[in-house]
Amino acid sequence: MVHELKTISPYYEEIEKGNKRFEIRLNDRDYKVGDILALRHWSDFRGCFTREQRIYVKVTYILDDERFLQPGYVCMSIE
Fold this sequence. Notes:
globular; mainly beta; 5 strands; single chain
C-alpha cells in the first residue's frame, strides 16, 4: 500500500538528508510494515504542496503502544 502524506519543514528536509528515520502519525490509514510512504513537501503558510517530487520511504517497524504515544498514534521506522 502506498500512502501519500503531507510533510512540513523542517521534517521533510531532515528525511531528505537521511537524518530523520521515523514518522509519527495518526493511524487513520491502518499503516502496516512494508507500506510505502510517498512524502510531499507541504507549506502550512501557503496551504499547498511546494515541491513536485516525493520522497518514497518504506515502513520497517511500527510502534503502537499507548504507554509511549498518544492514543491513536503510531511511530513508524522508515528507510
